[in-house]
C-alpha cells in the first residue's frame, strides 16, 4: 500500500492571467484513492479579495485554510485593510517554510488583483513554500502534468474576462478528464476590478 | 533557524513509515550556477529553469538572490532552502552592518551561511555561490549544504556544474577584464543550459565591481525564446456549459448618471 | 472489517453500525454498539482500531456533555464536526494517532438534518449519505442510484435494508447485521431492521 499523500485524495487547480483580470479554477472531487466520496469539495478559498487554490492531502487543505483564515483576520485587524496578493503569497511561503521539516502536504496557488493598481497577480508554491512567480498560468494537483500541457497550448496573453473563462475552463476540463483522481465537477472564478463571477461547470461524472 | 517548527515531523514519519505514504517532491533548482572574478570585481551567473522531478515547474525563475546591495548569491539545490536561507542571512547581515556601522562584508555573509547550514547537517539543501565587493575588495566563495566553503577565482555548482566547469577550465585566464569575465560566465551557463537536463532557458547575471553599484542583468541572454504561435485555440464564448453562476459585485452602484461628453465640458480631475 | 453507514433524509438522519466486534479471525461480540450519544440531537458512529475507537468516542462524548453543562446549550452539529476534525487532525501529529473514522449524525440546531464524514486524518466532508470501511465500496453505488433528496425516514430505512441485502449477498465477511439509530425532531431512538 505505497501511496503519496499528495495523491491520496486527488484534486487539481489552475490559475490564469487575462487583461485586467485573473481566473482561478478547481475540480470538486474528494476521494480516498479510487473511492469517490464527495462531488462538492471546493478547493478555492478567498481571504478578502485574494483567492487561493489548495490541492493535496484534504485534511491539510482544511488545516492550512483554517490557519490562513486566522492569520489574514489578524492581519486585517492590525492593518485595518485586507491583505494584498503579493503579501499573501509571502505569508503562505513563510507559513509553509516554517514547517520545512514537518510539512503540510499541499500545493497552493494564489490569484488576485492588487486593490490599488488593479494589476493581476498569480503565483504557485511547492509544499515547503518555494514561490513560483509566473506571468501567464499556474497549475497544481494530481492533474498538474496534464494542466501544464493544456495551458501551454491553449493559453494566450491579454484575454478578456469572457474569453479567459472559456480558456481556463477548457484547460481544466480536458486535463482532469485524463486524470482518474480529479474531476467530478468544476468551479471557476473570474476576478475583475468590480466583480467576481463564480461558475459551476457541467462536467463528466466518471 | 529561528522559528522553524517540527510539529508535523512525527506525524509525517508516521505517515511515511506506518501508513505507507511516499514523501513528496520539492521544487529543486536542478541548476547551473557559476562565478568568476575579474580585475576589479566579480561576476556570478545562473540559468533560469526550476524543476519538480522531470517536470519544468518554472521556465524563467530567479536564482540570483540579493544578500546586501553589493553582495549577491546564486543558489542551487532545494529551491525553497536557497530562497529562505538567503532571505534570513540577508536580514541578519543588514542588522549586523547597522550595528557595526560598516558596509557588510562578503566573508560575514559566508560565515553566517556556513554556520547556519552546518547546524542543519545538510538537511537544509542549499548550495550557494556567494560573491560581492566590500571595503576589502572583491570576493568569490562557494558554500555547500553541509557547511563547507571554498574560495576561488572561478567556480561552478549544481547539476550543470560539470558542463560549466569544462568551459571555465578551458577559457579562464588571470586578470580578466569585466567584459571577458561576463562572456566567460555566459558561455559556461549556456554549456549547462544545453548539455544538462536540469538546467535550461535563459542566462541571468550579476556584476559587482569595486566602487560601483552592483548590476543585475535579468535575462542577460535569452537563447530559448518560444516560437510565435502559428494558430490560436480561442474558444467561442459559450462553449463551456455552466450549471450555476453567482456574481459577487465588489462595488455598489449607488447612482448612475449620464455624463455628457463634449469639448465644452472640462474634465473633472479630483 | 467493521462498517458504519449514514443516511441523511428530510426529517432526520439514520446511522447503522455493524454489530460484530472482531479481533483477527474471531468475532468477540455479536451485539456491539459502535455509537455514542453526544447530546439530545447528535450521535457519533465510529469504526477503526479497537481501543482507539472507544477511547476517542468517550473523549468526545465527555467533552460534549461538559460543553452542555458549562454553556447551558448543546453544541450544534457543525460545531461538533469542526471540533472532532480538529481533534483528529491534531492527534495525527502526535506519537500515536487515534485510528478512528467518524460519522456524525444529528439535527443541526435541533432542526436541519446533518451528516458528516470524518476520517482518521481529519478529512471532513458533509454528505447526504456516507459509509466507512469496505462496506462503502458496496453501498455507495446503491446510494448513488436510489438516494433522493426528498426521502423520509421510512424511505431511508428501506434504502438501508437494500444495503444490508447487498452486503449479505456480496460481502464475504460476517458482520452480524446492523445496529440502527435514528435522530429526528423527537430526539434519538434505536430502531430495528426487521
TrEMBL record, chain A:
Component of the proteasome complex. The 26S proteasome consists of a 20S proteasome core and two 19S regulatory subunits. The 20S proteasome core is composed of 28 subunits that are arranged in four stacked rings, resulting in a barrel-shaped structure. The two end rings are each formed by seven alpha subunits, and the two central rings are each formed by seven beta subunits. The catalytic chamber with the active sites is on the inside of the barrel. Gene3D superfamilies: Glutamine Phosphoribosylpyrophosphate, subunit 1, domain 1. One of its GO terms (biological process) is proteasome-mediated ubiquitin-dependent protein catabolic process. InterPro entries: Ntn_hydrolases_N, Proteasome_beta_3, Proteasome_bsu_CS, Proteasome_sua/b, Proteasome_suB-type. One of its GO terms (cellular component) is cytoplasm. The lineage of its organism: Eukaryota, Fungi, Dikarya, Ascomycota, Saccharomycotina. It is found in: Cytoplasm; Nucleus. This is Proteasome subunit beta. Component of the proteasome, a multicatalytic proteinase complex which is characterized by its ability to cleave peptides with Arg, Phe, Tyr, Leu, and Glu adjacent to the leaving group at neutral or slightly basic pH. The proteasome has an ATP-dependent proteolytic activity. Coiled coil: none annotated. Keywords: Cytoplasm, Nucleus, Proteasome. The gene is PUP3. Belongs to the peptidase T1B family. It comes from the Eukaryota. Its main location: cytoplasm. It holds the Pfam family Proteasome.
TrEMBL record, chain B:
GO terms for biological process: proteasomal ubiquitin-independent protein catabolic process; proteasome-mediated ubiquitin-dependent protein catabolic process. Gene3D superfamilies: Glutamine Phosphoribosylpyrophosphate, subunit 1, domain 1 (3.60.20.10). Keywords: Cytoplasm, Hydrolase, Nucleus, Protease, Proteasome, Threonine protease. Its EC number is 3.4.25.1. GO terms for molecular function: threonine-type endopeptidase activity. It is found in: Nucleus. The 26S proteasome consists of a 20S proteasome core and two 19S regulatory subunits. The 20S proteasome core is composed of 28 subunits that are arranged in four stacked rings, resulting in a barrel-shaped structure. The two end rings are each formed by seven alpha subunits, and the two central rings are each formed by seven beta subunits. The catalytic chamber with the active sites is on the inside of the barrel. It catalyses: Cleavage of peptide bonds with very broad specificity. The active site is at 31 (nucleophile). GO terms for cellular component: cytoplasm; nucleus; proteasome core complex, beta-subunit complex. Pfam families: Pr_beta_C, Proteasome. Residues 223-256 form the Proteasome beta subunit C-terminal domain. This is proteasome endopeptidase complex. The keyword Nucleus applies.
Automatic annotation (TrEMBL), chain C:
It is found in: Cytoplasm; Nucleus. GO terms for biological process: proteasomal ubiquitin-independent protein catabolic process; proteasome-mediated ubiquitin-dependent protein catabolic process. GO terms for cellular component: cytoplasm; nucleus; proteasome core complex, beta-subunit complex. Its main location: cytoplasm. Signal peptide: none annotated. It comes from the Eukaryota. Keywords: Cytoplasm, Nucleus, Proteasome. Pfam families: Proteasome. The keyword Ion transport does not apply. Coiled coil: none annotated. InterPro entries: Ntn_hydrolases_N (IPR029055), Proteasome_beta2 (IPR035206), Proteasome_bsu_CS (IPR016050), Proteasome_sua/b (IPR001353), Proteasome_suB-type (IPR023333). PROSITE patterns: PROTEASOME_BETA_1 (PS00854), PROTEASOME_BETA_2 (PS51476). Component of the proteasome, a multicatalytic proteinase complex which is characterized by its ability to cleave peptides with Arg, Phe, Tyr, Leu, and Glu adjacent to the leaving group at neutral or slightly basic pH. The proteasome has an ATP-dependent proteolytic activity. Component of the proteasome complex. The 26S proteasome consists of a 20S proteasome core and two 19S regulatory subunits. The 20S proteasome core is composed of 28 subunits that are arranged in four stacked rings, resulting in a barrel-shaped structure. The two end rings are each formed by seven alpha subunits, and the two central rings are each formed by seven beta subunits. The catalytic chamber with the active sites is on the inside of the barrel. Belongs to the peptidase T1B family. PANTHER family: METALLOPROTEASE TLDD, PROTEASOME SUBUNIT BETA TYPE-1. This is Proteasome subunit beta. The gene is PRE1.
Amino acid at each position: 500500500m505505497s501511496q503519496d499523500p499528495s495523491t491520496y485524495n486527488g484534486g487539481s487547480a489552475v490559475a490564469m492571467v487575462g487583461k485586467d483580470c485573473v481566473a482561478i479554477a478547481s475540480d470538486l472531487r474528494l476521494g480516498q484513492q479510487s473511492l469517490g466520496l464527495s462531488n462538492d469539495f471546493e478547493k478555492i478559498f478567498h481571504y478578502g479579495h485574494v483567492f487561493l487554490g489548495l490541492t493535496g492531502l484534504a485534511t491539510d487543505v482544511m488545516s492550512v485554510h483554517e490557519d490562513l483564515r486566522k492569520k489574514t483576520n489578524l492581519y486585517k485587524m492590525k492593518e485595518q485593510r485586507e491583505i494584498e496578493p503579493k503579501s499573501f503569497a509571502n505569508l503562505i511561503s513563510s507559513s509553509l517554510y516554517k514547517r520545512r521539516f514537518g510539512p503540510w502536504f499541499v500545493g497552493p496557488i494564489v490569484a488576485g488583483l492588487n486593490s490599488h493598481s488593479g494589476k493581476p497577480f498569480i503565483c504557485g508554491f511547492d509544499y515547503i513554500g518555494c514561490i513560483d512567480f509566473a506571468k501567464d498560468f499556474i497549475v497544481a494537483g494530481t492533474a498538474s502534468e496534464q494542466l501544464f500541457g493544456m495551458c501551454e497550448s491553449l493559453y494566450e496573453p491579454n484575454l478578456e474576462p469572457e474569453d479567459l473563462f472559456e480558456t481556463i475552463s477548457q484547460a481544466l476540463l480536458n486535463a482532469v478528464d485524463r486524470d482518474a483522481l480529479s474531476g467530478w465537477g468544476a468551479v471557476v472564478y473570474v476576478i475583475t476590478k468590480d466583480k467576481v463571477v463564480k461558475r459551476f461547470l457541467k462536467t463528466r461524472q466518471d | 533557524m529561528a522559528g522553524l517548527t517540527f510539529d508535523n515531523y512525527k506525524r509525517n514519519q508516521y505517515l511515511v513509515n506506518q501508513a505507507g505514504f511516499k514523501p513528496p517532491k520539492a521544487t529543486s533548482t536542478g541548476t547551473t550556477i557559476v562565478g568568476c572574478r575579474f580585475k576589479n570585481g566579480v561576476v556570478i551567473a545562473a540559468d533560469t529553469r526550476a524543476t519538480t522531478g522531470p517536470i519544468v515547474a518554472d521556465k524563467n525563475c530567479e536564482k540570483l538572490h540579493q544578500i546586501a546591495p553589493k553582495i549577491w548569491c546564486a543558489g542551487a539545490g532545494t529551491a525553497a532552502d536557497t530562497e529562505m536561507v538567503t532571505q534570513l542571512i540577508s536580514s541578519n547581515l543588514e542588522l549586523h552592518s547597522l550595528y557595526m556601522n560598516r558596509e557588510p562584508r562578503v566573508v560575514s555573509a559566508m560565515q553566517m551561511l556556513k554556520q547556519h547550514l552546518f547546524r542543519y547537517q545538510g538537511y537544509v539543501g542549499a548550495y550557494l555561490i556567494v560573491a560581492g565587493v566590500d571595503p576589502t575588495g572583491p570576493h568569490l566563495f562557494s558554500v555547500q549544504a553541509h557547511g563547507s566553503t571554498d574560495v576561488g577565482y572561478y567556480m561552478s555548482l549544481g547539476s550543470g556544474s560539470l558542463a560549466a566547469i569544462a568551459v571555465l577550465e578551458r577559457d579562464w585566464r588571470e586578470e580578466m577584464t569585466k567584459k571577458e569575465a561576463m562572456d566567460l560566465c555566459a558561455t559556461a551557463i549556456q554549456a549547462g543550459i544545453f548539455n544538462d537536463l536540469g538546467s535550461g532557458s535563459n542566462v541571468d547575471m550579476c556584476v559587482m565591481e569595486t566602487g560601483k553599484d552592483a548590476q543585475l542583468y535579468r535575462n542577460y541572454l535569452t537563447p530559448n525564446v518560444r516560437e510565435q504561435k502559428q494558430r490560436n485555440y480561442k474558444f467561442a464564448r459559450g462553449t463551456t456549459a455552466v450549471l450555476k453562476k453567482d456574481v459577487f459585485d465588489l462595488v455598489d452602484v449607488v447612482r448612475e448618471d449620464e455624463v455628457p461628453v463634449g469639448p465644452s465640458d472640462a474634465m473633472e480631475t479630483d | 472489517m467493521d462498517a458504519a453507514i449514514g443516511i441523511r433524509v428530510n426529517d432526520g438522519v439514520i446511522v447503522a453500525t455493524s454489530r460484530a466486534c472482531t479481533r483477527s479471525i474471531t468475532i468477540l461480540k455479536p451485539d456491539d454498539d459502535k455509537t455514542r450519544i453526544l447530546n439530545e440531537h447528535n450521535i457519533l458512529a465510529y469504526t477503526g482500531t479497537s481501543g482507539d475507537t472507544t477511547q476517542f468516542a468517550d473523549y468526545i462524548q465527555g467533552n460534549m456533555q461538559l460543553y452542555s453543562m458549562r454553556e447551558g446549550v448543546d453544541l450544534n452539529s457543525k460545531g461538533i464536526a469542526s471540533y472532532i476534525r480538529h481533534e483528529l487532525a491534531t492527534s495525527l501529529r502526535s506519537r500515536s494517532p487515534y485510528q478512528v473514522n467518524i460519522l456524525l449524525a444529528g439535527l443541526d440546531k435541533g432542526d436541519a438534518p446533518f451528516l458528516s464524514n470524518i476520517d482518521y486524518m481529519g478529512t471532513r466532508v458533509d454528505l447526504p449519505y456516507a459509509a466507512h470501511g469496505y462496506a462503502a465500496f458496496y453501498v455507495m453505488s446503491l446510494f448513488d442510484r436510489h438516494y433522493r433528496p426528498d426521502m423520509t425516514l421510512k424511505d431511508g430505512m428501506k434504502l438501508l435494508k437494500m444495503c444490508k441485502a447487498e452486503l449479505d449477498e456480496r460481502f464475504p465477511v460476517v458482520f452480524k447485521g446492523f445496529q440502527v439509530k435514528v435522530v429526528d425532531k423527537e430526539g434519538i431512538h434505536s430502531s430495528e431492521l426487521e
